[in-house]
Amino acid sequence: MLAMRLTGLRALELQETPTPVLANPGDVRVRMTVVGVCGSDVHYYEEGRIGGQIVRYPFTVGHEGAGIVESVGSAVTRVKPGDRIAIEPAQSCGTCDQCHAGRPHTCRQLRFLGCPGQAEGCLSEFIVIPEAGCFKIPEDLTFDEAVLSEPLAIGVYAVRQSIPLRGARIGILGAGPIGTGILLIAQAQGAERIYVTDRIDSRLRRAESAGAVRVWNPDQDEVVGRVKEQEPGGLDAVFECCGQQAALDQAVELLKPGGKLMLIGIPPALERITFRIDPLRHKEICIQNVRRQNHCVQTALDWMRNGVVNARSLVTHRFPFDRAQDAFKLVASYQDDVLKALIDLPEPPRARSEVN
Prior knowledge:
19 strands; 7-stranded mixed β-sheet; Rossmann fold; 356 residues; Quinone Oxidoreductase, Chain A, domain 1; 29% helix; alpha/beta; 11 helices
């Protein structure tokens, strides 16, 4: 099969690799149709690592995906060949203390698609994953929406881990795909006033169109002062979605006493972040890390299907498989008002002949 593999920093190459086989009775082989480019993929593309997760070249990235089941192992019962599926990229062991505690996303033996040292990614014609990672796509949802279920699930989980949002006043620092998804979900959960910041004006315009009450660019506006003009008592919760030290500092200042800081963004190559202890302690700020998502893919699919959340506007660009490098360059440079770029995998010869 063909796979688009990282061969060095900022280098992607289309290579022939062995087609994966069903090694276990619970395995499912999926022909990929669409793959999304995530910010974590871009970290591997530009820096070759996220923290201690270091790429050994060549390596296939990609974990936001959708496809069609091609074959299944003897123990598979929930999906069959021909089913359209969204993919949960986290593969947990099911037997460790974390899995038994209902925390498969922090499994001791976790394997995650496109994570160095764990599992090759889905930017390839085929992947093999456990049946538990396959979620059927309802007929009235597209493959694009199936891909979006993965980043949207992170937003669902972040909101669940935060505070009751009905009537809440919150901040979202960073209006990329995750931050924008949280905006849509927070609205659906009844947040009263949502303030959004980002350094890219086009993302601010989208956030405003999506319902943010005020938006600001921290390179042009004194964010803390502007928010406090609107909310003198501070915000109930702040979702930090950009992984920037300056945003973390702003978040602490923006929160009211007893407020909750949600850490979602991944800092670029930083091993440490810092907080000023006085405001953190005096206001008794609660800090909650968000590790990907936990049991939220089906919720994300259901909410899109039921019209609770319309995520289709997140997709701004798409590329054919052989131009994946262009997709990564675009996302890495934030050019052309990109929010979410998708990569279309080739149709199987059978499908092409049927169309013709």
